[in-house]
Q: What sequence folds into this?
């Protein structure tokens, strides 16, 4: 964490140090938060963030207080920091940074949530959050460790599941190629593809270690290290029948390489473009897009929130595969307070994480 | 025509000047042909072509001889002149240039085709062609003028019909935008969209004259002149609800502009990219392709040949609309021998034609 970031108060100090509704759980009186201070140009810098502290709020009628234990870090966050309309409103300057979180209910005036229950919600980069329950889901920590509810059993697992099976219309016998394959979404995409009967699953990732993990523990048929290999040539060998489903998390040159190897009627799933999110010049469009015409293929964007009504069913299926040992969930858990968030986020763009990147915080 | 192009013979002179099977129809003894001499870089030059003459061939058993009257000129031809795999084999150096044609059977040893019948076939840029009937369709000149069978009732009409209704999945109430709107395919796309109940049809074309034709005779709701207007801004006004189907014939900057105005769940049909076919540097990829993600839209390539089994049904429907006066077919017919083909082809890339560009030849 940069020494330039220090805590500032956004409210009067809390004069009431504890609240009887907290039901015995130890609750600090201070809520540390990370707010967006400026819209970044390129990679977010420490001056784009502001650390604040304010009194832990007290739930009113119909509200609960959640003590956040784990915060999700996602490439899409970079987009939320930009101004302008997208599939979701931008985070406003001065707002607590938006993030998926899991935590425990420590006080409740909400009839549907009891103290001691664990929940998932987009509660932001802070230690405590008030919620009226909108968009908050209960999670069962006996089913999987809490960080898994931000990864394979959370939004990234949902993204992999619906992106591959619905948007990508993957069917038995397909050759599936996924970029960002050692990341949270990509690693699940490849494993679901194998479970669902893909004839060949190829992952593209950065570095030999990630590639070995893909073809070893995760059972991918082949892996391409984009840092040391010519992806276009490597795809010729790794996907000799051509690509039926290409699941793209990265954009840029790798998307262009995949376009040269499409089978007829291929489906490209546009899930993200991490190589382009910090571009300060214009995004690099896929110069080989006319391959879509030649091969009668499609390129389709997907946003996971559209599938909310089917999350429970998908999570059940994913949890079943995990129980059977057919689906491996890996989380890269960084320990630290909310002040560790900015530096941790950069790991994503530097390709340093393997699996789902999560920040584990502990209230002071 | 360039004076550098002169006829050369590819075969021994014909010693047998006429053939009894020609059934009384006057058939020249010489077949003039246009062959590919070199693979063009950028716009085709006269040195990329070779004029040849050879004796008019005599049909063998199961063959017929067609006297070609009209030759289709299509943007896709530029792609056929390049080396390398595409949706169709390239024209080889020295081959007669591939082209869709209509003509009359003037001699036949084929049980399915009689002398005097009119046919459509990809018989090439020449005056006469032998055929075994593969891919040759009979056309009825009482239904429409012969050039129409290269346009609205031919491959361009089929492209418009299946691209809009199948690939683009256009439905009633959609806002449909088409580029290259005054061209052979685009002008039919917009009219079919109106017939099928689009709430708004917007054409993008070059020049005020074309735009006036679109909003006047053809009944488009709006037209954008890309030569004098900012397409992105103009689309905001012309398609205020966003674009549901964008039918793209041009690629480049116009595709990028359309991407900024997609409605949620939009379908982009990639039919061609005339702005890029003569690019000597790499093709310009659509920099705004991440709009597909934001709007959950798709971009899909189509090739008309895939719909061959449904051509008859579609042609019947199109012919019906023409009879009812709801669909206007316009052909830009250039008169000349096969030697006029190279210069005529350039009209397409200079945006000079309105409607379907056809070369009408008359055997010497």
A:
């Amino acid at each position: 964490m940069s020494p330039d970031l220090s805590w500032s108060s956004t409210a009067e100090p809390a004069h009431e140090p504890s609240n009887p509704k907290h039901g015995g759980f130890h609750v600090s009186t201070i809520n540390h938060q990370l707010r967006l201070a400026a819209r970044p140009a390129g990679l977010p810098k420490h001056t784009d963030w502001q650390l604040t502290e304010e009194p832990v709020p007290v739930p009113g009628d119909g509200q609960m207080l959640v003590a956040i234990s784990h915060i999700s870090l996602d490439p899409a966050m970079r987009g939320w920091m930009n101004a302008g309309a997208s599939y979701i409103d931008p985070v406003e300057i001065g707002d607590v940074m938006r993030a998926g979180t899991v935590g425990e209910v420590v006080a409740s005036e909400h009839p549907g949530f009891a103290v001691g229950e664990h929940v998932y919600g987009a509660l932001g980069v802070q230690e405590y959050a008030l919620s009226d329950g909108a968009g908050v889901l209960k999670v069962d920590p006996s089913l999987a460790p809490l960080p898994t509810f931000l990864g394979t059993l959370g939004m990234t697992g949902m993204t992999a599941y619906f992106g591959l099976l619905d948007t990508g219309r993957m069917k038995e016998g397909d050759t599936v190629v996924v970029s960002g394959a050692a990341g949270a979404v990509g690693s699940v995409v490849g494993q679901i593809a194998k479970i669902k009967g893909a004839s060949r699953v190829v992952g593209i990732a950065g570095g030999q270690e990630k590639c070995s993990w893909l073809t070893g523990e995760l059972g991918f048929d082949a892996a391409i290290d984009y840092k040391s290999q010519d992806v276009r040539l490597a795809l010729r060998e790794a996907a000799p029948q051509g690509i039926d489903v290409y699941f793209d998390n990265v954009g840029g040159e790798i998307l262009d390489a995949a376009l040269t190897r499409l089978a007829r009627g291929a489906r490209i799933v546009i899930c993200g473009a991490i190589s382009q999110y910090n571009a300060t010049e214009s995004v690099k469009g896929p110069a080989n897009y006319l391959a879509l015409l030649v091969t009668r293929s499609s390129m389709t964007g997907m946003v996971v929130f559209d599938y909310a009504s089917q999350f429970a069913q998908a999570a059940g299926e994913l949890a079943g595969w995990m129980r059977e040992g057919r689906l491996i969930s890996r989380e890269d858990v960084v320990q630290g307070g909310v002040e560790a968030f900015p530096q941790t986020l950069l790991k994503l763009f530097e390709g340093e994480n393997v699996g789902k990147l999560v920040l584990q915080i502990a209230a002071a």
About this structure: The domain at 155-305 of chain A is CATH 3.40.50.720 (Rossmann fold). Residues 155-167 of chain A form the longest helix (13 residues).
